[in-house]
Each structure stands twice: as C-alpha cells, then as structure tokens.
Amino acid sequence: MTHHRSTWRNRWTFMLATAGSAIGLGNIWKLPYMIGVNGGSAFVLVFIACILIVGIPLMMTEILLGRRAQKNPFNGIEALAIEAKASPYWKLLGGMGMLTGLLILSFYSVIGGWVLYFITEAIKGSFVDIKAAESTANFNDLLASPLTLLFWHTVFMCLTMGVVARGVNSGLEKANNILIPALFFILLILLGYSMSVGDMQAAYHFMFSLDFSKITPVAVLSALGHAFFSLSLGMGSVMVYGSYLQRHVSIARTTIYIALADTMLGLLVGLAIYALVFANNLAPNAGPGLIFQTLPIAFGNMPWGSLIATLFFMLVAFAAWTSAISLVEPTVAWIVENTKISRKVSAVALGLAVWLLGITVVLSFNDWQHVKIVFGLNIFETLDKLTSTILLPLGGLLMALFAGYFMKRDHVQDELNLDNRGFKLWRITNNYISPIAIIAVFLYLFGLVK
Prior knowledge:
Blueprint: H1 11-22, H2 25-37, H3 41-69, H4 73-83, H5 91-124, H6 132-143, H7 146-165, H8 168-197, H9 200-208, H10 217-231, H11 237-242, H12 251-279, H13 290-300, H14 305-338, H15 343-364, H16 379-406, H17 409-416, H18 420-445
Helix pairs in contact: 1-8, 1-12, 1-14, 2-10, 2-12, 2-14, 3-4, 3-9, 3-10, 3-12, 3-16, 3-17, 3-18, 4-5, 5-7, 5-14, 5-15, 5-16, 6-13, 7-8, 7-14, 7-15, 8-12, 8-14, 9-12, 10-16, 10-18, 12-13, 13-14, 14-15, 16-18
C-alpha cells in the first residue's frame, strides 16, 4: 500500500519535536531523583559521559535509519535489511521498539496523571504550610485511590491520543511548536525563583563537585540506562521522527543540539529542585517521591509557593505530554501505512489498548500491590525495569550493529553527510564503544561480571 508521507516543515520543527520526545518525565521526574540516590555529582559526571559517548552517536544512528527508510520502524528496518541484503528478520527489531514504546506509555500515562492531579492541588493551595507527614500522607492517599488514579490516567491518555490523531503537521508539529518553548520559558522562571530563595550554592556543589570515589558500577549502569530513557532511544520514536526529516538537514548538527538541550534542561531542573530542597533542609535522596512528596513541602513554605508549584507541575506535564506523543507515534504510523485504517481510528484503538494496560499499573499501587510478576517486582516495577534496563539498551545495541555492520557504508555516509574525520568518529563510537558499553552493562546486570 502507498500513502502520502508527511514531512517536518523545517529543521526547527524536527528539533522541537525530537527534543519534545527526549525531554519528558525522564528529565524532570527521574533524573533529579536518580542524581539524589546515586551520589549526586558522581552520577551527573557518568550520565554526561554516557550522553556524549553513547547517546549522541546512537541518536544519529536512529535518525539516519528513519530518514533512509522513510517508513515506520517495522517496515523501515525490513526495507533497509533488503537493501543491505541482510536477513528480513531484522524487522523484528522495529517491532520490538514499537512494543517497548507502548509498554512505557502504559505506566508513563499513570505518572503523567499524577502530575495533572498535582497541578490541581497546587492551584487549590493544598501545599501552603504543609508538613512532611502531611505531604507523604497526601501522596500515599493518591496512590491508594484507584478511581482517582484512573481518572487522571484517562485524562492524560486522551490528551496524548488527541494530538497523535491529528497527524504530523496538524498534531505533532503544532503541539511541540507551542509546548517546548513554553516549557523552557517556565523553566527559566523557576530557575530564577530558585536562585533568589533557594540554596543554589549547595545545589551546585551536590550536583557538580567531582567525587570519583562515588562512581560505582550501579551508578554507571543507572546512568547508561537513563541516557537511553532520557533521549528516547531504542524504541523507534526517534527513528519515526527521522523518517519525516527532509534530506538537506544535517543529522549530526541537529542531534547535538537536541542532546544538549535535553541534557541541559534536565540538569537545570535538577539545580532548581535541589536549591529548594537544601534551602528547606530536606533530604536530596528521597527517590521517586522527590517531586511529589519533598517539593510540595518546599513550595508550601515559600513566598508565592502555590503559583510556583503550579508552574512547576505545568512544566512537568508539558514535558510528559510531548514525550508520550512520541511513544505511540511509531505504532500509529505502522497501522496507517499497512492498513486502510485512518490515523484517527488507529489512535483511538491503540490508545484504548494502552489505557487498559495502564489500569493494571494503576492497581499495582493499591489493590494489586502484592501481586508480583518477576523477582518480587509488581506490575509497575516490572514494566519499568523491563523497558528502561533491558529493552531500550537492547534496541539501541541492535540498531548500532545493524547500521554499523550490515548497512552499506556508502548508504550510511550519504545519510550522515559527514567529512572523513567526523564519519570515522561516528563509526568508532557506533561500531565499538557503544556496543561494548551496552554489553558490559548487560553482563553486570545479569551477574556475569562484578
């Protein structure tokens, strides 16, 4: 079947869309708490190294695969394999990526629902003069209420699928053109506020004072896994966005800009958060509850705290929304390109399926919290570990191997359009450094090396 294929209007819209895919809960919710529980500056140093050495080359690889194929990940990898005279079973790599994105969205939407709930709480002034015990109780009450979680999970899924249903230019492009600039604008307001009332010096010391003694195998494993999660690598989102990219746009230059914007935003959010945390003598290693339990205490004891809390959770919501859109786009593109089903119907049907899976995640925080899937992990924990620790790095590894060892060199070079030095640098990182790093992480993960 043949379909008219949309393209981004220009490089700017592609950068905003891909940055929107990358900038999400991984940066604003997960990165700050991972910095806190993994030794602060040690984790930051390793994370930045992972972005530079592994993240940027693999994002370039995923974009070039998409632009070369001009198809969704499943059909795209298959077409590229045929072109390279490789096994057509490589298409399963595209299918695995699409499945990974849907699995992530099933719990991502539930957490996105938390954020929407906290916006309403901030607007109502629920954080004013709140104490630690009250903040913890409020969050626990939210998790204990399946109906409340289900309602906000539903709202978040409707917002996400509403954009996807409108298509590349009318949906994805317009949403990102508005949401990403708004996201950075709100961040600047929050950062300025944290600099004026928070302990920015303590935050800076915690995040950037080098302490190599705190670099552990666990920190390296977490940093590499989060680099994939942060840049949305290994699940086809970047590949399908790359398939809408015009030929004249430089993949290397735009990738660097996107990775820098993504990493910079995550670190600036971390500074803003920890400046408030330290100013209020709160624990920096609060874990996943950092922005939902610890920050409300800080907001509640500050001038204009309700307004700043509202802006902060709006920032998180915008980031989550843009990322959620990219998680489902590869599968919607596959349905549209291989069937006669319209994009709107595809988006509704797929959204319903993911929403249903998300209900099991909702229940894992309350009625089904004692239901364990593997290794003592509940449904939410299983989906999180399976995707971020195994499927995303595995997808990135296989994409690197396919582009580096199976595609024809001149086809890769034609897409990247780099000079000899730049192309050699990409090949070294893509063909050797990135695979070795990912394999080493897997060996450690499964206890084969200590």
